[in-house]
Specification:
The complex is a heterotrimer of chains A (182), B (584) and C (325).
Chain A: H1 3-36, H2 47-71, H3 77-103, H4 115-146, H5 156-181
Helix pairs in contact in A: 1-4, 1-5, 2-3, 2-5, 3-4, 4-5
Chain B: H1 9-14, H2 19-49, H3 74-110, H4 118-138, H5 168-197, H6 210-242, E1 252-253, E2 256-257, H7 265-299, H8 306-319, H9 335-347, H10 349-363, H11 372-394, H12 397-403, H13 407-437, H14 443-461, H15 464-469, H16 489-519
Antiparallel strand pairs in B: 1-2
Chain C: H1 2-30, H2 40-68, H3 79-112, H4 128-157, E1 165-172, E2 175-180, E3 214-216, E4 219-222, E5 227-233, E6 238-242, E7 247-251, E8 257-261, H5 267-274, E9 280-284, E10 296-302, H6 304-313, H7 317-324
Parallel strand pairs in C: 1-5, 4-10
Antiparallel strand pairs in C: 1-2, 2-3, 5-8, 6-7, 6-9, 9-10
Helix pairs in contact in C: 2-3, 3-4
Classes of the chains: A mainly alpha (182), B mainly alpha (584), C alpha+beta (325).
């Protein structure tokens, strides 16, 4: 992989990330506009979402270590696999958060639901769907790492996965703060 | 990634990663869909000219679309209008125009072997292909295809009880468009990254042909606006299939009181038009880019004001994001907001005017060679003038009160999109056909196609302004319910006459296109004596575009009839002579 | 059988075209000419065609303007509408002037500068002065248009409705209904959940203000008296379009919208001017389903006396309820 190819593929990812940002911008703008019209129920976000936030932050920190390690040509398989597990945990915590919300009477739809709840489910679900893509990427890079396919001069696939995963983390922090304080 | 690898039939023609093949895949699919879309318009034009009567053309329709008397049923009229709009806006003018020419021209004109990622590029076509299959399939499902207009406003598009097409047909429409958007985004990513990173030595941004600038800005517009359509559609999916109330509230339909509460259809309109307006510039900018190139080459003159042309592309691109509300003047929005959108909309006229004057200045004291491509390019400028001027009426909120959703709007957007953008696309096909297929299209058939189209097209769409100023609404199955429209039947008949004639004229183009691919005369290396890099590649296209090293660029793309030169064109690869200054 | 014949004819036409094209290309080869090369002759022909057909297009436009001018809507029959008509005349004149200057230039240049082998084009790359001129002039003109437009918009939208006669216009697939507020001048409350076949507008029959409301199938207005139409939709987006008054407003389920205006010409007057068949009409102007093309409500503008007589004859909601019992 030559340098220009590397740079181009990274830019492809960044622009793709830009597109995903616009998707969530559409959803959050809709949220803001709708909220201003009233008939909106405020509720407290379950603690599970705080747990999942911390989890994803930890996973990003681990990926920072991973970056440093591969630049020293050290094995990164265990770290990547650990991040993958944390990613699965994140999904598990999200689902628990939804369960708590349903028990509290906040529904996506149907009897007793309010559009505030609908938005919450749709936005967090959308994030989770994009996270699944990240999980797939982590899984593949983990396997490649186990097979020693990456070295300090050639780890583009890993780098792209790391960038995407950091993005998912930042996106989640934005969503979490947005939902908590707006 | 030049060089040779073993190609099977499948990797060469089906799952090709070569940008030139992918471009042709987009072109052929776009042309087939254009035929489908035009047939639909022929059918509903016949209904408008002979309301309530049967017609031999209706034999093309699925069973059940006509009643016992053979007349087209009103909700299927709306289905045709909806699918016509969807197919022409997205499938023909976006995928068929950008998909074809961005894929074909970008690597060639910047001096690259291929796109940054051939794999993503291949995916972009196949997502588009599957989207196409699903959309065509939706025509035949029970209840018919989506019928709420190509703008699919809820609640109409959310409730099958309100119109049958809003059932399965609309669900398939949403799936199809999602796949379409994903495909478009994959393409757009490639176009941007390729232009920014893979330009050959000496190809600075200032030396890029205007076509490439236009395609770059178009791709950026797409990346920023298409995802919002996805978020808009996602909320609609939830309202339709999961009973949420993002867009729906206070509805009683078919005697049934629905549970939805608190939603707003206007929210849909904001999200939709946030894409919807940039979308029309995604359609127009590549067409104008092609027109700039074709006019310059055939006028044997530099495009006048290259820098101003680039600036106007950038300004139009930017402004296109802040005018969407002019589609919503009559929604009861806060009048102040309406004022803001009037202001921004009328501003867009300025860079548009600059482009028109630059085209005129390019033709002034030119030495024009009238290839069919050149004829279409000039007609494209005429349509841009005509259609653009009526935009000044529509963009003015106070005037929009009486022309919104009338035939005045239909006339306007068909002239800018159906004429100007399509003419740009046709100019591109005629101009780059030799590069795509190694053969020449027949010139005389091209002349006949052009004049027939030019006359019929203005004959169809100019009269519509009068229908609109007479108060006739759009999307009306027939006009006989209102005595005030009785005097308009002649105009409708004239429009239908030109529409059917124009449709028949296109057969000449289709014949010319297909015949020339197989039996056309072989082209020469540089048939139009053009400066741009694509004409330095071998006539028989190869993977990696150039057999040896990539070309080096020494000058801008527009040295036509430069004083002191031997010929009236100088390829971009020719180094500057001693003492020669470079132009910009 | 007809289908087979049609298919055969089409096939024959295609084969003919193929052969004609082959013949013309072979002839060209014989003459050692490239059939597809654009010659000076071609440029001359196409150049002339550009001039003639281009000008023909302009003649066609003028013909349409003359021939179809009488079909256009008559002058506005409302106060704000007259302002809109002034703005429209101004804007139309402006764009027609630009159109009739720029379009002939395009076609004339195409003709005048048709190419031939002896000529050379003039190598003109840019001219900043020209760019500045044709940027600044449109900017100045458009600023004027914008200011004029915004003033007119403000007059149409920001109307003081404190003295206006309030009338509810209710719409559903595929019918318009209207409701007058009666003596108390207050429209009774309504709720979509109360809509039934007998309570078509979903009026809260407990609300005392609703008792004197009158539901009507055509709307009468008093000439020169301001009204405000309040819109409500039951099912999908419709749009209330009263072209003669220059009134249009979307009717959106879940939202209330309104449009205030003052009619200036009675129906009787319009009948004199436009013919006995003239009627003011309300049309639906936003795609709403199969019968979108067939939803209308008659509007009548008359004198105060005629209006009072008409209104007195309309039944109130309590009247209707009584007769139902």
């Amino acid at each position: 992989m030559n340098l220009i190819q590397n740079r181009a593929l990274k830019q492809l990812l960044w622009i793709g990330i830009g597109a995903i940002v616009m998707f969530f911008a559409g959803l959050t703008s809709a949220y803001i506009v709708r909220r201003a019209e009233g008939n909106w129920v405020d509720f407290i976000l379950p603690d599970w979402f705080l747990v999942s936030t911390i989890t994803i932050i930890i996973s990003s920190i681990l990926l920072v270590f991973t970056s440093k390690k591969i630049k020293r040509d050290e094995s990164v398989f265990q770290l990547i696999f650990l991040v993958f597990i944390l990613g699965l945990l994140f999904a598990f915590f999200q689902i628990n958060g939804w369960k708590v919300l349903t028990n509290q009477g906040v529904f996506l739809t149907g009897e007793g639901s309010n559009v505030a709840g609908s938005f919450l489910y749709v936005i967090t679900l959308s994030h989770l769907v994009h996270l699944v893509g990240g999980l797939v990427a982590l899984f593949i890079t983990a396997i490649k790492a186990k097979r020693n396919r990456y070295n300090k001069d050639d780890y583009l696939g890993l780098e792209l996965t790391i960038i995407y995963w950091h993005f998912l983390g930042l996106l989640w922090i934005y969503i979490y703060v947005f939902l908590k304080y707006f | 990634m030049s060089g040779h690898h073993n190609e099977t039939f499948i990797t060469k023609y089906i799952f090709s990663q070569d940008h030139k093949m992918i471009a042709k895949q987009f072109l052929i699919t776009g042309m087939i869909m254009a035929i489908l879309g035009m047939l639909m318009s022929a059918v509903f034009r016949v209904q408008l000219a002979n309301p309530g009567e049967s017609s031999i053309l209706y034999n093309l329709l699925p069973g059940g679309w006509v009643n016992e008397l053979g007349a087209l049923s009103p909700d299927k009229y709306l289905a045709l209008v909806t699918m016509h709009g969807t197919i022409l806006v997205f499938w023909v003018l976006t995928a068929g125009l950008s998909g074809t020419f961005a894929n074909f021209l970008i690597p060639l004109q910047i001096g690259a072997r291929d796109m940054a990622s051939g794999f993503l590029n291949m995916l972009s076509y196949w997502f588009f292909f599957i989207a196409t299959v699903i959309l065509v399939w939706s025509i035949y499902v029970e209840g018919g295809p989506a019928s709420g207009g190509w703008t699919i406003y809820p609640p109409l598009s959310a409730l099958p009880q309100a119109i049958p097409g809003s059932g399965t047909g609309m669900t398939l429409w949403l799936i199809s468009i999602t796949l379409f958007v994903v495909g478009s985004l994959l393409g757009g990513l490639n176009y941007i990254v390729t232009i920014l990173n893979l330009r050959t030595k000496g190809m600075s941004m200032q030396r890029l042909p205007l076509t490439v600038w236009a395609l770059l800005v178009t791709a950026i517009l797409g990346v920023l606006s298409f995802p919002v359509l996805l978020s808009c559609g996602l909320l609609l999916v939830f309202d339709r299939s999961f009973g949420t109330s993002f867009y729906l509230s206070d509805i009683v339909v078919n005697g049934e009181v629905l549970h939805h509460l608190g939603g707003s259809p206007i929210l849909f309109e904001h999200l939709f038009w946030f894409l919807g307006h940039p979308e029309v510039y995604i359609i127009l900018l590549p067409a104008l880019g092609i027109i700039s190139e074709v006019i310059s080459v055939n006028a044997r003159k530099p495009i006048f004001g290259y820098k101003a042309m680039v600036a106007s592309i950038l300004v139009i691109g930017f402004l296109s994001f802040i005018v969407w509300g002019h589609h919503m003047f009559m929604t009861g929005m806060n009048p102040f907001l309406g004022s803001v959108f009037t202001f921004t909309t009328l501003l867009i006229a300025i860079p548009s005017a600059v482009k028109v004057f630059n085209y005129l200045a390019t033709l002034w004291r030119a030495n024009i060679r009238f290839t069919p491509a050149m004829l279409f390019a000039i007609a494209g400028v005429s349509a841009f003038i005509t259609g653009g001027l009526t935009g000044l009426i529509l963009g003015d909120s106070a005037l929009d009160i009486n022309v919104h959703d009338t035939y005045f709007v239909v006339g306007h957007f068909h002239i800018v999109m159906g004429l100007s953008a399509i003419y740009g696309m046709l100019a591109g096909v005629y101009h780059w056909f030799p590069k795509m297929y190694g053969k020449m299209m027949n010139k005389n058939l091209g002349y006949v196609h052009f004049w027939g189209t030019f006359i019929c097209a203005y004959g169809v769409f100019f009269p519509m302004h009068f229908l609109g100023l007479a108060g006739l609404p759009r999307r009306y199955y027939e006009n006989t319910a209102f005595p005030m429209f009785d005097g308009l039947t002649d105009i409708n008949s004239i429009i239908t006459f030109f529409a059917l004639s124009g449709a028949v004229v296109q057969v000449i183009f289709l014949f010319n296109f297909i015949y020339s691919i197989f039996k056309g005369t072989k082209t020469v290396q540089n048939p139009w004596k053009s400066n741009t890099l694509e004409w330095t590649t071998p006539i028989e296209r190869i993977h990696g575009n150039w057999p040896g090293d990539l070309p080096s660029v020494h000058r801008w793309a527009y040295d036509y009839s430069k004083p002191g030169a031997e010929e009236d064109f100088i390829l971009q690869t020719v180094p500057l002579k001693e003492g020669e200054k470079e132009e910009h | 059988m007809t289908n087979i014949l049609i298919a055969l004819v089409v096939l024959l036409a295609i084969v003919t075209l193929v052969q004609l094209t082959r013949v013309s290309e072979l002839l060209g080869e014989l003459k050692k000419q490239d059939v597809n090369e654009v010659t000076d002759e071609d440029n001359k022909t196409q150049g002339f065609l550009m001039l003639i057909i281009g000008m023909g297009f302009l003649v066609f436009v003028i013909w349409q303007m003359i021939e179809w001018n009488h079909l256009l809507l008559p002058e506005a029959a409302s106060v704000h509408g007259q302002e809109i008509d002034v703005l429209m005349r101004f804007s139309m004149t402006l764009i027609l002037v630009v159109f009739f200057i720029v379009t002939p230039m395009l076609f004339y240049f195409s003709y005048r500068y048709r190419g031939n082998k002896q000529n050379t084009a003039y190598f003109l790359v840019h001219n900043n002065k020209l760019e500045f001129i044709w940027t600044i002039i449109p900017t100045i003109v458009l600023t004027g248009v914008i200011i004029f437009g915004l003033k007119t918009w403000d007059k149409a939208m920001n109307v003081d409705t404190s003295d206006s006669q309030e009338i509810e216009v209710f719409v559903k697939q595929f019918q318009w209904l209207a409701r007058f507020p009666g003596e108390d001048n207050i429209l009774g409350k309504s709720n979509f959940q109360l809509i039934t076949p007998t309570n078509v507008l979903g009026i809260d029959e407990e609300d005392l203000n609703a008792e004197d409301d009158k539901i009507v199938r055509e709307v009468h207005l008093v000439v020169n008296e301001p009204v405000v139409l309040k819109f409500r939709s039951q099912d999908v987006i419709h749009s209330a379009f009263l072209p003669h008054f220059r009134v249009q407003m979307n009717c959106v389920p879940g939202l209330s919208t309104q449009f205030a205006f003052t009619p200036t010409k009675t129906t009787a007057q319009m009948k004199k001017e436009e013919g006995e068949d003239f009627e003011y009409v309300l049309l639906c102007n936003k795609i709403c389903g199969a019968a979108h093309y067939n939803m209308q409500m008659r509007f009548v503008v008359e004198t105060q006396e005629e209006y009072d007589l008409w209104l007195a004859k309309q039944k109130t909601i309590s009247d209707k309820l009584l007769t139902q019992k």
